[in-house]
Amino acid sequence: MTALEEASRKLAEMIRKASRVLAFTGAGISTESGISDYRSQGGVWQRFQPVTLQDFLASEEKRREYWRQKKELYAQLELARPNEGHVALAELARMGKLFGVVTQNIDELHQMAGMGDAEVLELHGTNRKTVCLDCGAHTDWRETYRRLLEGEEILRCRKCGGLLKPATISFGQTLDPEVLRKAEAWASSCNLFLAVGSTLVVEPAASLPALARQRGARFALINLSETPFDDFADLVIRAQAGSVLAKTVEMLRHPMV
Ligand code: ZN
Fold first, then answer.
1. Is 86 a catalytic residue?
2. If exposure means fewest CB atoms within 10 Å of the residue's CB, which of 55, 153, 204, 235 is most exposed?
3. Does the pTM of the predicted model rise above 0.85?
């Protein structure tokens, strides 16, 4: 048995024994789909100056810079498809094992892999919708991207003229308290917390696993690099998530393999 198979076997065993699995996902699950990990070496923020919400609201120049960055990210988003990690999690949901995903990602790849909207909590919002900061109208990101490609530099609402922004939580913006409350409720009610592709450093990623553990849940994590939780987890798999998750689902489907 290879190391990958051994890790998948252990994870499959934990999932088999659990009745309520919650997945928590970060950038690491989407890198295999071609989405940049903002914080990694060579990541987007080493080239881009992050624009805070305050800057965005205050300065025409910052708004132009912000949309220049988004245009590049949209080009990645347009090509991104769910990878085997997203597909495996959606499959776990269909099998009745996984009841939800709390994600730091803003790419909607979980939903594209087949998870329902009600099964995914987006802590940082989504890049696939644009919101008017004045009237609150939502538009599809493809319309926004088309306008950028046509040369618009700062986008304004067609209805009210207000400033448009992707429906993401920007730097300097607080998380939606309703989403946060639900994430905490989910973490408190799972009996297996599965962290995938997140270093679990920023909040609330850093506190949700502890919340789950306090309520007696088991805790497994899959990540390429070390996390502050490696000593605290019941199972640590140091790998790219896709193949491990795919193998795990295969083992759950065919226990004798
Ligand atoms: Zn508007």
1. no
2. 153
3. yes
